Automatic annotation (TrEMBL):
One of its GO terms (molecular function) is ATP hydrolysis activity. It is a multi-pass membrane protein. SMART domains: AAA. GO terms for cellular component: plasma membrane. This is Branched-chain amino acid ABC transporter ATP-binding protein/permease. Residues 369-616 form the ABC transporter domain. InterPro entries: AAA+_ATPase, ABC_AA/LPS_Transport, ABC_transp_permease, ABC_transporter-like_ATP-bd, LivM-like, P-loop_NTPase. Pfam families: ABC_tran (PF00005), BPD_transp_2 (PF02653). Keywords: ATP-binding, Cell membrane, Membrane, Nucleotide-binding, Transmembrane, Transmembrane helix, Transport. CDD domains: ABC_Mj1267_LivG_branched, TM_PBP1_LivM_like. It is found in: Cell membrane.
Length: 621
């Protein structure tokens, strides 16, 4: 087993030991192996013929539950958006496909894609109100969506059959199912659903290991940090809701043509809770864990006829037990944590070399970032008061001042987190005042944070590659299908990430999850991630805080490298000796106002700076 201890540095250190860790590694490798996957698929396809029709039907339910769980896995596990109303999407898929086939004479092969699209469109629409709320409010809002859907189904008698339900949907269980002219019995339908499930799981794994999956995780952990490297939270969430809706709709449509009867009760709150429990107990983020969980929660109750009366009590107990004992679910118990770069990309990048010199802004006019009379008020408090400064390419400007003097607020204004009350921010000829954070990052003004904001369970390498997100041009579909162009482009950026890892002295820890590493390493990784976003201006908010002397030396060298690349650098810090060796000029703030602008020697003699900030330190310097 692996045990975790806290070092003085605050990092969690994994202690390798024999036994279950090796077992987990072995199991993970086995499950990920294409031969194993093919053999399992073949076994199920052929072996199903030996099973009773009842068992085959339950197995079809398992597969549908596995697809449904993936919709929660994507929305909640990856993108961090809770949903208590997923039965609504499941129901949209089921009713849409059922009605199209039964009443409109559609072929199932056409009705299912339409149902999936409708559920995706509903998910996309839901993302707009969902984007305005979070946490418990989001849970309530999605619960409301599920309830509205349930009521519509109950009341819309003419279309859905209301409380009496919709019987006679062409289905495998009723032996009335025909797809593209082929009559399908329960066994045929199981085999079809099995192939669809295999495809969904394959695409889901691809998506998780693509720029899309990494972006989902980035907004999950910190929307502000994601925005700072050019990942827009709004459109990323829209995509997550749409794809999640599509997966739930697919599960619903497959369900409709399995059972043949649709009643509103099948799409009420218990269905939403059931899929959440399956996903959480399976382990959010673990595809294989959720397949096992879907099996557990579907097969056992059906077979043993347990839960029938006690379903909710059983779910509650299992969930509580699982969260207490297995916070990472079955997936965390049996498998290694999932990884977020495709092995093919890793292999391809290993054969490439990248020169960090290519990070130098190329073929572009040397432009400065100009802050003109920026004021930022919070109610009656003036946090930044008419500040003007200029950041020039190849120069390092320090921004110093006492605590609460407005340094971080100024960085927040420049990086698009706050819209200033007055004043302008220009980069070259372009007015970037009031642009959102991801638009500012796209304008190549990138920042780091006082408290490093990385994706905790990503490795150092995965965190760095996230920095290149906005530069990746291949489509989400190409990423999910793992097309060669997408692999080649990712590999190219990964090779550059390797070069930056080397520059930042992080190569040795590249494969370690970032939350197992000391604070200083995380800070360096955050600076590296910002660098991979190819900034022309970089704003570093106290990057040296909490670093050891050795780490500070490493950081100073990295900042010098960035200067040599021609970046305009703003550096907030309190260590005067650290700054003295590095910076070209200093701006001092006090109570939001700029009280000094010039070189560091002049600053140390300036009476106003001594009075407001340096105090005794200046006299000893
Ligand atoms: N979102 C906010 N709402 C209200 N007041 C804020 C907000 N952000 C900052 N402030 C206030 O603005 C002032 C400047 O804060 P800011 O964090 O910019 O200072 P700082 O110089 O970065 O301080 P430190 O060195 O401690 O990080 C403080 O009085 C702070 O309380």
């Amino acid at each position: 087993m692996t045990a975790s201890v806290r070092e003085e540095t605050g990092a969690t250190v994994e202690q390798p030991s024999l036994g279950p860790a090796a077992l987990r590694r072995g199991l993970s490798r086995l499950v990920a192996h294409p031969l194993f996957q093919l053999a399992l698929l073949a076994l199920l396809l052929l072996g199903a013929g030996q099973l009773s029709s009842g068992t085959v039907q339950i197995a079809s339910f398992v597969l549908i539950a596995a697809i449904f769980a993936q919709s929660i896995n994507l929305l909640t596990g990856l993108a961090g958006q809770i949903s208590l109303g997923h039965a609504g999407f499941f129901g949209i898929g089921a009713y849409c496909s059922g009605i199209l086939v039964k009443s409109w004479g559609f072929d199932v092969a056409a009705a299912v894609p339409v149902a999936v699209l409708l559920a995706a469109a509903t998910g996309w629409l839901l993302s707009f109100p969902a984007n305005r709320v979070r946490d418990v409010y989001l849970a309530m809002m999605t619960l409301g969506f599920g309830m509205v859907f349930f009521e519509i189904v109950r009341e819309w008698n003419d279309v859905t059959g209301g409380t009496m339900g919709l019987p006679g949907v062409p289905a495998a269980a009723l032996r009335t199912l025909t797809i593209l002219g082929f009559r399908m019995d329960g066994l045929d339908y199981f085999r079809l659903v099995l192939l669809v499930t295999a495809l969904v799981l394959l695409l889901m794994r691809n998506l998780t290991q693509s720029r899309i999956g990494r972006a989902f995780f980035a907004i999950h952990v910190s929307e502000v940090a994601a925005g700072s490297i050019g990942i827009p939270s709004g459109s990323t969430k829209q995509l997550a809701y749409a794809v999640s809706g599509a997966l739930a709709g697919l599960a619903g449509a497959l369900y409709a043509h399995l059972v043949g009867y649709l009643g509103p009760e099948s799409f009420a709150l218990p269905r939403s809770i059931e899929v959440l429990v399956i996903a959480i107990v399976g382990g959010l983020g673990s595809i294989a864990g959720q397949v096992l969980s879907a099996t557990l929660f579907t097969f056992l109750p059906e077979r043993l006829q347990v839960f029938a009366e006690w379903q909710f009590i059983a779910y509650g107990l299992i969930l509580t037990f699982s969260l207490l004992v297995l916070p990472k679910g079955i997936g965390g118990l049996l498998f290694e944590p999932p990884r977020f770069i495709k092995p093919r990309v890793l292999r391809r990048a290993a054969g490439l070399t990248a020169d960090p010199a290519a990070l130098r802004p190329q073929g572009e006019a040397a432009e400065s970032l100009v802050v003109e009379g920026v004021t930022m008020r919070f109610g009656g408090l003036v946090a930044v008061d008419g500040v003007s400064l200029r950041l020039e390419p190849g120069r390092i400007t320090a921004l110093v001042g006492p605590n609460g003097s407005g340094k971080s607020t100024l960085v927040n204004v420049v990086s698009g987190i706050y819209r200033p009350t007055a004043g302008k921010v220009r980069f070259g000829e372009r007015d970037i005042t009031g642009l959102s954070d991801h638009q500012v990052a796209a304008a190549r003004v990138v920042r780091t944070f006082q408290d490093p904001r990385l994706v905790p369970h990503f490795t150092v390498r995965e965190n760095l590659l996230l920095g290149a997100h906005r530069l990746l041009r291949h489509s989400g579909a190409a990423a999910t299908l793992g097309l060669p162009g997408a692999i080649a482009e990712e590999a190219e950026h990964l090779a550059m990430a390797e070069a930056v890892l080397a520059l930042a002295g992080l190569t040795e820890v590249a494969d370690r999850p970032i939350d197992t590493l000391p604070y200083g390493t995380r800070r360096m990784a955050e600076v590296g991630r910002a660098l991979l976003a190819r900034p022309r201006v970089i704003l570093l908010d106290e990057p040296a805080a909490g670093l050891s002397e050795k780490e500070m030396e490493r950081l100073a060298q990295l900042i010098r490298d960035m200067k040599a690349m021609g970046l305009a650098i703003l550096l907030i810090d309190h260590h005067m000796d650290f700054l003295a060796e590095l910076v070209d000029e200093v701006v001092v703030l006090d109570s939001g106002r700029m009280i000094y602008h010039g070189d560091i020697a002049g600053m140390r003699r300036d009476p106003q700076v001594i009075a407001a900030y340096l105090g005794d330190e200046a006299t000893h310097a």
